[in-house]
Design a protein that fits this description.
alpha+beta, six-stranded antiparallel sheet, five-stranded mixed sheet, 3 helices, 11 strands
Length: 387
């Protein structure tokens, strides 16, 4: 069985057996709990395969997992590799069992004992295979969990695009309402101009009526003068009668003209009343549209307020992914940027209401805590391995 030896300054070495799947980190749900702030909550996982290979995987830790002073994401351990977990240094010991062929001839008793040992090892191998199968099942469940999270992220992206489309539709509706309001305002101005024109025509008709009234008064005065002249001279009687008839004709014509003017004035007054009613109707329509316009503006502000954090989040993520494409693979800058991306992805649940999916806690092992403070003894050697 392979063994992991953790080396801490000024403290005794800690030896941890490696079999199946062993997780290491600062959280309590790890198989090996390291009480050090420089160790991530889930730092490294060791996967032991049936063929004896040991895979070391970094879980996106801040300090990183180093093999031969180089940061890695995944690495198959080889004899002589130097391992570092953040502030800790470690080494892996591979033990092999050699069969002494000379002991076979020692006798049937030793052969029987060897046979029993082989059977015992076979049973242990079966138990190990079963544990490995359970570990693979847990790994498959974790991969399925990751796929579910990615699917949820795609759904949230679709919802964000839908909200953007709805915002565009609301902007178009508000634009139409503004156009309708402008058209109503133009029609109101046109009606006001027509009303002013009609009022001017009415005033002109009133002035013409006043002028005709004055002419009528002048005609009556002329008629009175004629009558005076008739009474003073019989000789001019016939001429005065002719003049009188002519004046009567002019007076009749003036009266007809006066009636036509009065009729035109009545028509103008009716048109003014109709235009006034139409203006009032348009003002009422405009007042009825005002709440709808205000409501649409408030809805637009609310939608923009809801979209602003999501747009800022998406812009920041686009900038991070753009920076990621220009960085060297597995560099310290790329690892740090991946950590920022994961933290930013976690904040998406605060921006959009969605069901939280918690990662299942791994079975804790029976390994001691390790303190990072120099000169302080290790914490209790309490057992934490699952049955």
């Amino acid at each position: 069985m392979a063994k992991l030896t953790l080396i801490v300054a000024d403290e005794p070495e800690v030896v941890i057996p490696l079999e199946g799947l062993v997780t290491l980190g600062r959280d309590e749900d790890n198989d090996v709990v390291i009480d050090d702030d420089r160790i991530s909550r889930h730092h490294t996982v060791f996967v032991c395969y049936d063929d004896g290979l040991i895979e070391i995987r970094d879980m996106g830790s801040t300090a990183g997992t180093l093999i031969n002073d180089e940061p890695i994401r995944s690495h198959f351990y080889q004899e002589g590799d130097r391992l570092a977990l953040g502030p800790l240094t470690a080494r892996i010991s591979l033990e092999a069992t050699n069969i002494d062929n000379a002991a076979i001839g020692a006798g049937e008793k030793q052969l029987a004992e060897l046979t029993q040992s082989i059977e015992h090892l076979s049973r242990q191998r079966g138990d190990l295979a079963l544990a490995l199968q359970e570990s693979e099942t847990t790994r498959s469940a974790a991969q399925q969990e990751i796929q579910n999270l990615l699917a949820q992220q795609k759904e949230e992206q679709s919802r964000l695009e839908q909200l953007s489309k709805e915002g565009e539709q609301v902007e178009l509706q508000l634009k139409d309402l503004r156009n309708q309001s402008a058209e109503l305002e133009e029609r109101n101005q046109s009606l006001k101009a027509q009303a002013d024109k009609t009022e001017a025509e009415t005033q002109a008709a009133a002035e013409k009526l006043t002028h005709l009234t004055k002419e009528h008064q002048s005609a009556e005065e002329a008629l009175n003068r004629v009558r005076t002249e008739i009474s003073s001279s019989e000789h001019q009687k016939s001429e005065l009668q002719i003049a009188f008839q002519r004046v009567q004709s002019e007076l009749s014509a003036q009266q007809i003209s006066l009636q036509e003017t009065a009729s035109a004035e009545n028509s103008a007054r009716g048109l003014i009343s109709e235009l006034t009613a139409r203006e009032q109707e348009l003002r009422t329509t405009l007042e009825n549209l005002s709440p709808s316009i205000e409501k649409a503006r408030e809805d637009l502000k609310e939608i923009e307020a809801r979209l602003t954090p999501l747009r800022d989040w998406k812009a920041s993520m686009d900038q991070r992914y753009e920076r990621l494409g220009s960085m060297d693979k597995d560099s310290e800058e790329e690892i740090e940027l991946w950590r920022e991306i994961e933290e930013a992805q976690a904040t998406l649940f605060d921006l959009l209401p969605a069901a939280r999916i918690h990662t299942p806690r791994l079975t804790r092992g029976d390994f001691p805590r390790i303190s990072n403070r120099s000169g302080v003894p290790l914490k209790s050697e309490r057992i934490r391995r699952s049955s």
